[in-house]
Structures are given as C-alpha cells and as structure tokens.
Amino acid sequence: MSKSYGAVRALDSVDFELRRGEVMALLGENGAGKSTLVKLLSGLIQPDSGTIEIAGKEVVLGSPLQSQRHGVAVVQQEYSSVPTMTVAENLLLGDRTAGWWWSRARLDRGTGDVLDRVGLGHVSPRTRVEDLSVAESQLLELARMLRRDAQILILDEPTAALSDHEIERVLAVLRDLANEGRSIIYVTHRLDEVFRLADRVTVFKNGRSLPARDAASLDEHAVVTMMLGREMSTMFPERPELDGAPVRVEATELVAPGLHEPVSVSVRRGEILGVTGQLGSGANALVRALAGVTPAVGGRVAVDGAAVDLRSRRRGIAAGIAYCSDDRKRDGMFQGVSVLRNLSAPWLGRSSRLGVLRPRHERSTGREISGAFAFDASRLSANVETLSGGNQQKVVLGRWVGTDPVLLLVEEPTRGVDVGARAEIYAKLRDLASTGTSIIVASSDSTEILGLCDTIGAFYRGRLTSVRPHTEWDEPQLMAATMHSEATS
C-alpha cells in the first residue's frame, strides 16, 4: 500500500498481514504512517496503489460504510461520539441494523450489557457524552465497537487516557475477543501493553513497514531500537539532589471538588512531584484546583511564601502557575490556528507594545521555544492540527515556557506520544525544573511517575494516602497505594 499527500510520502509500499484470532501491535513514532494505514482500512481515505484482501478476497474500502460491511470496526484516537447526545444514542449511532424506531426504554435496555463489559455499568444510558470524563469517553468508544459483531477490530491508542485498573479491563476484553476468533490491530505507544497483549508486532518507520515479529521474541529495548532506527540510552533523565532546596509552592488543607478530604502538599524549587491514582482518585482534582480550573473552596496556597488567590484560571496565570490539561484537543490547543499563535497565546502581552503585537518578537520567541522542544521551526506558520500527536504535545507544553512559570501543572504529559518524543518531553520537563520551576505531574502511567518524578504522591478515593521520595517506591507498592486505602503517608 502507498499513499502520498502532495510531496509527503505517508505510506511507501507497506505490507501488513493480520491473522485470524491474533492481536497485532502496530508500532512506530508519530508520523511513521500508522494512522494513515488505519484510515485506509476504515475507508476514510483511498490508497494511491496497492490492494487490500479480507479472508482471501480482494476488497475496496471506499467509505466507512463499506469498511463496516466487510467486518471492520475502528476506535480512532480522536473521539467520534456526539457530545450533546446520550450514551445510548451514541452506541446506536451509525448502526444500520438497529432498526428505524427506538423508544427511550428500548434504548436503555439495549445498552446495559455492553456498558458493563467495558466498565461503564455505573453510567446511565441517558447521560450526555459531554458530561463524561476523558476516560469514560474512551471506554464508550470501545463499547460502540463491541456492540457490532465486527471481525477485524482496530484500536488507535485505546488506553491513553485510562488508569491502570481500566487498562486491565480493556486488555482483558480484547484478549477475550481475540480468543473468539476476532482479529485485532492494536496501535499504542505504551510498550508494556504490547508484551501483555500482542501475539505479533509490526513496526512502521518513515512510511515503511518492517517484517512482523513474534512479540515473545522481543523485549522493550529491541522494539524501541526498531522504532527509532538507533539505540536510545535512556528514557528518563537523571534526577538531581534536592536536599536543602527551599519549598516554593505549598498547599495547606486544600478543599476542592473531587477531593474527599483536605489535601496538603509542598513542592520544592526545581522538584518534580508526581501524583497518581485511579480515575476519580483525586490526583487530577488536586492539579485542577491548583490551576484554578476547578477553584478550591477552602485551604491556603502560597508561592514563595506569599498567599495566592486561585479562584479562577486567570488568577492562577497571574500568580505564575501554568497548566496543561490531559486533553490537548479539547482545551489544550486552539485548533485551526497556526503553531506560532498557539505557542504565543499565553505570552502575547510580552510580544506587544501599547497593545500592538510585534510579529518579529513573537516569531523570534517561537523559534527559541521550537529549538528547546525539538520541533521544526519552519512549521510555525502551519496549522497546529497538521502536526503529529507528539509535536502537538510539545506545542502545548512549550507555550508556557515563554511565561517563565513558577509552577507547571501537567496532566498526562505523554498521552498518545511515541517513545522518542516521550524521552524529549521528559528531558525538557527536567530542564525546566533545573531552572527553578516547580512541577507537578498527574499521570496514570506508573512507569512515567516512577521514572520521572522526585517525589510521588498516591491518591485513593479522593484522599492523598501517601507521599514519599521516589527511592521509597516501586511499582507493586505504587499500585497497592492507588488501589487500597490502607496505604499510609
């Protein structure tokens, strides 16, 4: 299969094979061609050359409907649910076998089993999708796919927004489906999931495909080397000694939505504090309260010893608090706008004089940030939506560098990002910390929390159960602390 967009060769004579009843992991850096292949198989785009065979018969997937008729179901990385419609309505959306007339009661009855299967049994079928969390929205996408009796299932980063417990449920469901004889293409950047789920691995690099390999014959180092085409010495940067570093940000008895009891934390100058827990545990609630996104209703927050008012996001920015949400598409970027304007949005005032923008200063600062975050400065004028997921995440993080933040709050910093870009983002976060910026990272990725952070806090059911230096944690201890209330601080 080959596919070009102008002078850009997205797929270059790619070969790909999927066997009945197997899970094939499709891996590669952002921009390697994985998403293009998924779009071809889902009927969203057409190849320039090449053929597709299903069950030994050549087929033409000229539209999503034709793809669906050939037994292909896709969960795209970007959600396809309609926010203003209910959960039940979204489950039936596009299903031409559902009939022409449905009552509310019949809608509700037809959704219970599939919602239970993906861990959404607690969600009412009449809940609007816009009221779901990011993780619940992703699980709904999986439920839509399971409701159809598809034989070829394609999942593009299905667990990027999920906690460890939810990931286990999704992986178990997928393994059951494969055991039933369904074939699964699993696109992910989380390599630990590859070895827990996949039978074989296909790696794409620069629009070309490498021969498929048995997952059992590989390890994480070998996969990373295949993806990058080179050795990568380490994923995480070295951690500095912080003994004696002064406390820069301190929250005392903080009370906010999502926290079931007051929380107190402190972050030293140059420290990266990691907070983690299951969905709704309170880790993200803490970050959003400190950012002023969901304002605290009690407690005290001080920066460099001075109390700050965080009753709104505007006040948080004025206090030097930068915030990157876990959903860059929804509220992390201005879509349809240039990369440069996305970068400069928080610091336009610094590139203006008497209210008039100085384009030369804006572009100069944008180029500096591009260099620091290792993305191509020649694309500053491009629409931010044309960037790969990894480069979009760099833009979302890089925009705050121009504000010289006192505290950087980041939710899921590497969601949907390939291993190479992950290492670059980790290095940049550590570089920012080395300049004196305090950083709080909220992540559901335990490997990320353990490898990046200096101090780690575990949340369970709205409570901060334990805060300890990274040297006092390992993965089993961290999982226990986020799944059981017996953990102590």
UniProtKB/TrEMBL annotation:
<feature type="domain" description="ABC transporter">
    <location>
        <begin position="242"/>
        <end position="486"/>
    </location>
</feature>
<keyword id="KW-0067">ATP-binding</keyword>
<dbReference type="Pfam" id="PF00005">
    <property type="entry name" value="ABC_tran"/>
</dbReference>
<dbReference type="InterPro" id="IPR017871">
    <property type="entry name" value="ABC_transporter-like_CS"/>
</dbReference>
<keyword id="KW-0813">Transport</keyword>
<dbReference type="InterPro" id="IPR003593">
    <property type="entry name" value="AAA+_ATPase"/>
</dbReference>
<dbReference type="InterPro" id="IPR003439">
    <property type="entry name" value="ABC_transporter-like_ATP-bd"/>
</dbReference>
<dbReference type="InterPro" id="IPR050107">
    <property type="entry name" value="ABC_carbohydrate_import_ATPase"/>
</dbReference>
<keyword id="KW-0547">Nucleotide-binding</keyword>
<protein>
    <submittedName>
        <fullName>Sugar ABC transporter ATP-binding protein</fullName>
    </submittedName>
</protein>
<feature type="domain" description="ABC transporter">
    <location>
        <begin position="1"/>
        <end position="231"/>
    </location>
</feature>
<dbReference type="InterPro" id="IPR027417">
    <property type="entry name" value="P-loop_NTPase"/>
</dbReference>
<keyword id="KW-0677">Repeat</keyword>
<dbReference type="GO" id="GO:0005524">
    <property type="term" value="F:ATP binding"/>
</dbReference>
